[in-house]
Structures are given as C-alpha cells and as structure tokens.
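Entry 12.
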Amino acid sequence: MKKMSRRSMMLGLPASLLLPARRAKAAGNQLGLIFVAQSTCPYCQSIAPVLKQLSDAGVADVMLASMDRRPVPPFVRFQDGHAHPLTAHFRSVPQVLVYNANLDQVTHVVGGVRNPRRYILRLSHALQQSAAM
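Predicted 3D structure (tokens):
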C-alpha cells in the first residue's frame, strides 16, 4: 500500500472539491486567483502545485505576486508583489485573492495554511461564492 504524504493528499483534492466552481465559470463567470507568496515559504511551496492544477483545469487563471521577487515552482512567471496595487499591503504569506472579472474586484481573500484540507475547502467555498456573484 502506498503511503500518502501531505503533498499527495493536497494534489488529489482539487479535482473533486472544485468542480462546482468550474461549472460556474463555464456559465460565464471569469475568475482569477492572485497568489501572494514567496519562494522560501514552505506553505507557499505546498499550495503552489494545487493552484497550478486549478489553472491547468481552467477553474481560474492564477497570477503569482512574489514578495521576494522570485518564482515559486511550478510558477515561473511572476509579478513583484510589493509593486502590485492589490498585494503591496500584505505582510504575511500565503494569501490567495479571488478576483471576479465580471465585478472587476477581489471578492475573497483566503490566507494562511494551518490545515491543508481545510485550506482547500476554504478556497473551494470562496471560488464557488465568487462564481455565484
């Protein structure tokens, strides 16, 4: 039997938890995520692959706002988090901002990772709520 690590658990969650948000996006909502992170943060490193999966699945576009001006794999492209008007005020990472293009505003901020499963659930609820607006 294969031992399940925290990372493999997180990588297996998004597909099942975030399908309602994907259906809502297909109905016309345009969602984006702004990932406020830094390359040295272990929590940022653990959720980055999950956010990449969401982007690859078409649930939401993801922009990395790097607070240390370095990429957070698997994201290689980033914007300077200190220079971006929506992220410059953040002093702790990780933060994920849910941006709704139909409303042209950030609707939710999901911060901190204490429990990976709880974090994914909070992000899923935020995406679903934003998509319904």
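Annotation: DSSP finds five helices and five strands in the chain. The CA atoms of residues 7 and 46 lie 7 Å apart.
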